[in-house]
């Protein structure tokens, strides 16, 4: 009976640890190496199609810029389709600034590194999160 109880306990412990591993999610590491200066902050937002260009992302991160470079990490990301938006917030006002004609005054970038004119599109910035951690490079 003690052996049966021990086996049951070990089996249950194994299942619980496997369940905990799956709930941790995926880590996405993003590197940007072409900031023109170290002023302000780099602001990153991880978006689903539902949140893209509509406000904060499902996860947000910001960082100081050192030597024109930033590395940030999004943790515990569940599998799905995402896009990352990046803003170089030079004046640290937590938003993108525009000139009188509507053109951005601050640099920005997207996953997928689509440099076409016009507003960013989810389809050109999207990527899939599956079972493995990801490393992405985003250019401004």
Q: Count up the domains.
A: 1
Shape: globular
Number of helices: 2
Second-tier CATH architecture? Sandwich
What does this structure look like?
The chain contains 2 helices and 8 strands. The protein is of the alpha+beta class. Strands 2, 3, 5, 6 and 7 form a 5-stranded antiparallel sheet that branches. The model is unreliable at 1-22 (pLDDT under 50).
Helix-strand blueprint:
Layout: H1 2-23, E1 26-32, E2 41-47, E3 59-64, E4 70-77, E5 80-89, E6 108-110, H2 122-125, E7 127-129, E8 134-137
Parallel strand pairs: 1-8
Antiparallel strand pairs: 1-4, 2-3, 2-5, 5-6, 5-7
What is this entry, summarized?
The chain is an alpha+beta fold. Helix content is 19%, strand content 34%.
What labels would you give this structure?
disordered N terminus; 5-stranded antiparallel sheet; single chain; globular; alpha+beta; 140 residues; Immunoglobulin-like
């Amino acid at each position: 009976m003690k052996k049966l109880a021990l086996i049951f306990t070990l089996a249950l412990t194994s299942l619980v640890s496997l369940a905990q591993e799956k709930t941790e999610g995926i880590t996405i590491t993003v590197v940007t190496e072409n900031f023109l200066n170290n002023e302000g902050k780099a602001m990153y937002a991880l978006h689903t199609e539902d949140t893209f260009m509509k406000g904060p992302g499902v996860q947000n991160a910001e960082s100081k810029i050192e030597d024109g470079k930033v590395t940030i990490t999004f943790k515990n990301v569940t599998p799905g389709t995402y896009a990352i938006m990046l803003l170089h917030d030079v004046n640290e006002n937590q938003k993108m600034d525009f000139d009188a004609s509507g053109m951005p005054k601050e640099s920005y970038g997207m996953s997928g590194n689509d440099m076409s004119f016009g507003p960013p599109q989810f389809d050109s910035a999207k990527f899939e999160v599956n079972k493995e951690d990801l490393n992405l490079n985003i250019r401004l």
